């Protein structure tokens, strides 16, 4: 076995039962013998060397390309064991720290998301076949962290609760408020605000696939007069808006553009307006995005620390009025996505190929384990431009969330009754 890889595993794995079959067919085991045994096999010496020198990038890469296989357990089980043992110190070895330092130096170039590059980055991920996302997302195509009000909530229930939770924080306290949805996805959030709160929504995206589906959904729901969707960079959007919401888009802005992002939001937000930003974040100081995810899944993506976001918002002229940290909610969301994707893996393979399926299996498993045992959380940050723009206690959020929950439950009951009658006929 590669000596560097052996040294790494000697110092990393202390609990569990983890075996590695090297490219010569020899097997070695680490851990204390507890838990379900897990085994990984390397198929080539080149794969061993690659993982030994740069595991954060190469383990996923060689798995995707068939250089290694999980022959006992699953990829999720393997990553869970690694992160449970390592905690937030996977890159604590000297050579790994050197690689991460070089990545930090290059961060300004990698994350320089100009309008043209931002469009290219979005097309790389969000313009994949819409049939792929049908395999694992909820019915409303919410591709961001759900909100689990109950541990046993379904994915559909938790995603609806997320929209409700965000809407309550926006305080849409009168009809016809003009709302900008930055990074509107397939339109679910904007359509919820238009339908349930009579908002006039402008949603912007850089994805052709998302735009087409969002517009179709608005027409189909009879909401095209209230929900307008555009293929437009947020920097080109003109105001004013009474409310701004952005869910799962800030991760694509790039640290070098945070000041421009918040300055533009402040410029187009009315003086008594409210902004709600929902973004993946890290609970520790600024660092690097996972190398595999950055290279293969979200090019140009960057996960910010709270200090980076707050400093840029302050410079942009916004006042932070509420902060909530969603812990573990995204891990539960990703669990649902991972299980749904694996249940329909053959359909994904028919759309793309085995390499693609391995890439996505690793991406979903690595993301879930990162939210469970590493440094990732979700921030929901509310901003205003004036101190008196909102009530001085949070009671209005709870009251509005309760009201919207009742509306959602009534709507669900109506749909269920209609379906029941149609089935009976």
From TrEMBL:
Q: List membrane-spanning regions.
A: none
The UniProt keywords, alphabetically, are:
Lipid metabolism, Methyltransferase, S-adenosyl-L-methionine, Transferase
Q: Which residues form the DUF7884 domain?
A: 17-92
**Which Pfam families does this chain map to?**
CMAS, DUF7884
Into which family does the record put it? Belongs to the CFA/CMAS family.
Protein name per Swiss-Prot or TrEMBL:
Cyclopropane-fatty-acyl-phospholipid synthase
The uppermost taxa in this organism's lineage are:
Bacteria, Pseudomonadati, Pseudomonadota, Alphaproteobacteria, Hyphomicrobiales
